[in-house]
Write a structure and sequence with these properties.
By secondary structure, the protein is of the alpha/beta class. It has 2 domains: 1-72 and 151-224, P-loop containing nucleotide triphosphate hydrolases (Rossmann fold, 3-Layer(aba) Sandwich); 81-147, no CATH class. Helix content is 37%, strand content 25%. The protein is built from 7 helices and 10 strands. It has helices at 41-49, 88-93, 103-116, 132-145, 162-179, 190-196, 230-257, and strands at 2-12, 15-26, 30-35, 56-61, 64-65, 73-76, 150-154, 182-186, 199-204, 209-215. The protein has a 6-stranded mixed sheet with strand order 6-7-8-3-9-10, sandwiched between helices. Strands 2-1-4-5 form a 4-stranded antiparallel sheet, covered by helices on one side. The protein is globular and about 60 Å long. The protein starts with a strand and ends with a helix.
């Protein structure tokens, strides 16, 4: 499996959100996209999800054009994705109800993903009875239950407290290792991107475009202690410097243009 973006641009009238984005994600990779506000991170993910179409360029998955949403891509947005009238297990089963599989297969998939995300004991609970972190676990389990080729994460932990956020980071990395699913994640948190990703792609602003594509040379087996390692701290600092420089350049252009 290969996800490929070639010369992708997106404009909204006179506003150019993305321009000339080239990005390739191989099967089983975990790639994080970071950048300052206005760099087009969420726009990029929306295009890959098929919720919007590029103004220019091409997006392909396994050589086939991405022209709309499909079961080969599972999307987890930041919040507000669960059906409040459905229990946890019925939320996870939602996408499976649309697939031509047997009830036994559907039940088995739901059971496995509830166990994988630590939700077995909450299967009969409604979303309002869950914490924010538990609700995001349900959203991730639901997206993965359909066995997509690519899991798309749009700042899924941005609204969580620090401890819950770190718990979710550990969970997502473990689920990625257990399932082998390709992951493309957007986040504003550079530390999160370095911890989770095998690559970190930095987007510049105005318009959004790839400013850097950095390999994360850290062990595959990571726990939270790696965040204190000198190599981790140095990589985080270097990526933060790139993001900061791009944001300052954008601000300077905007200020000069307003004079």
């Amino acid at each position: 499996m290969k996800l490929e973006l070639s010369g992708v641009g997106k404009s909204y009238g006179n506003l150019r959100a993305l321009h000339g984005v080239d990005l390739r994600v191989a099967s089983g990779e975990f790639v994080c996209v970071v950048g300052a506000s206005g760099s087009g991170k969420s726009t990029l993910l929306s295009l890959v999800a098929g919720l919007d179409v590029p103004t220019e360029g091409q997006i392909t998955l396994d050589g086939a054009d991405v022209t709309g949403p499909g079961p080969d891509r599972g999307l987890v947005p930041q919040a507000g994705t669960l059906y409040p009238w459905r229990t946890v297990e019925r939320n996870v089963a939602f996408g499976l109800e649309l697939l031509p599989i047997t009830p036994e297969d559907r039940a088995a998939r739901v059971d496995w993903h509830l166990a994988e995300t630590g939700l077995t004991d909450f299967r009969h609970a409604l979303p309002k009875q869950l914490s924010g972190g538990q609700q995001q676990r349900v959203a991730i389990a639901r997206a993965l239950a359909c066995e997509p080729e690519v899991l798309l994460l749009d700042e899924p932990f941005g609204a969580l407290d620090v401890q819950t956020k770190e718990d979710m980071q550990v969970l997502v990395r473990q689920v990625w290792k257990d399932t082998g699913t390709t992951v493309l994640m957007v986040t504003h948190d550079v530390e999160e991107a370095v911890f989770l990703g095998g690559r970190v792609v930095v987007l510049a602003c105005d318009p959004g475009r790839v400013a850097a594509d950095i390999t994360v040379a850290l062990p595959e087996d990571r726990d939270l202690d790696v965040k204190r390692h000198p190599d981790f701290l140095a990589l985080r600092a270097s990526i933060e410097d790139i993001v900061r420089a791009q944001h300052r350049a954008y601000t300077a252009r905007a200020t000069a243009g307003g004079r």
